[in-house]
Design goal:
The chain contains 3 helices and no strands. By secondary structure, the chain is mainly alpha-helical. The termini are far apart.
């Protein structure tokens, strides 16, 4: 039972770290838009930076959504007016 739980948690951790293919394509397109092609040595670092930024933005949006559990108007983001 213990080994099964460890394997299950390991699989969940691997799935949580994976980024969707659409995010990977978007990151590659963003890197190419700023002039870094797939042949450049910085391409892997650039795509990783864009993927990380996407995940951080999703995390920040989830955090703000959790703080404001009441339905919001949509026209004004009440916590972000300042």
């Amino acid at each position: 039972m213990y080994k099964t739980m460890i394997i299950g948690f390991a699989l969940l951790a691997l799935g949580g770290c994976a980024t969707p293919e659409s995010v990977q394509r978007l990151a590659a397109a963003n890197c190419q838009a700023v002039g870094i092609s797939q042949n450049d040595p910085q391409f892997a670092t650039c795509t990783q930076a864009y993927r990380r930024a996407h995940l951080e933005n999703r995390l920040e949006d989830s955090y703000h959504d959790a703080l404001n559990v009441a339905p919001e108007d949509g026209r004004i983001r009440h916590g972000w007016v300042y």
